[in-house]
């Protein structure tokens, strides 16, 4: 199930941001082979595109700039934006999974904030799919 992979990636992103000096950050032994491959893909993608993803969050957060977002919420957004913009996962599934992660791990306002930001990003794309 991809949700377990996303949860493992969220934990890894959180640990990496909270403890930046952490070098070895395993995703966990609880993932099967398919989940582990998906989690590694997501984690590498978020790290590779983090600068761009953070700029998107900052532009689309409307009063909740990147620095104002709680650590967990910020990393849920990073994960979801990578998956939304760089994978073939259906947008509705990405947004739904991000909201579910927000309900489970984020702040009280996280589900609404994350849904709003992801919706603005997805609807704000140009005709060619770029963010303009």
CA-based gyration radius: 14 Å
Helix content: 55-70%
CATH H-level superfamily title: NusB-like
**Proportion of strand residues:** under 5%
The secondary-structure element order is: HHHHH
Number of helices: 5
Distance between the termini: 33 Å
Broad CATH class: Mainly Alpha
Number of domains: 1
CATH architecture: Orthogonal Bundle
Uncertain spans, ≥5 residues at pLDDT below 50? Answer: none
Mean pLDDT: 86
The major pleated sheet works out as: none
How would the global form be characterised?
globular
CATH fold-level assignment: N-utilizing Substance Protein B Homolog, Chain A
Decide which structural class fits the backbone. mainly alpha
Total beta strands: 0
Structural commentary:
- The chain is mainly α.
- The chain has one domain: N-utilizing Substance Protein B Homolog, Chain A.
- The chain is built from 5 helices and no strands.
- It is globular, with a radius of gyration of 14 Å.
- 35% of the residues are buried.
- The model has no long low-confidence stretch (mean pLDDT 86).
């Amino acid at each position: 199930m991809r949700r377990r992979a996303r949860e493992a990636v969220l934990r890894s992103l959180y640990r990496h941001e909270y403890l930046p000096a952490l070098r070895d950050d395993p995703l966990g032994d609880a993932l099967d082979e398919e989940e582990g491959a998906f989690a590694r893909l997501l984690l590498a993608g978020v790290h590779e595109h983090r600068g761009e993803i953070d700029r998107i969050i900052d532009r689309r957060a409307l009063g909740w700039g990147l620095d104002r977002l709680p650590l967990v919420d910020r990393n849920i957004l990073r994960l979801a934006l990578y998956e939304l913009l760089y994978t073939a996962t259906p947008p509705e599934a990405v947004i739904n999974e991000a909201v579910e992660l927000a309900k489970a791990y984020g702040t009280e306002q996280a589900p609404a904030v994350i849904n709003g930001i992801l919706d603005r990003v997805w609807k704000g794309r140009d005709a060619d799919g770029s963010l303009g």
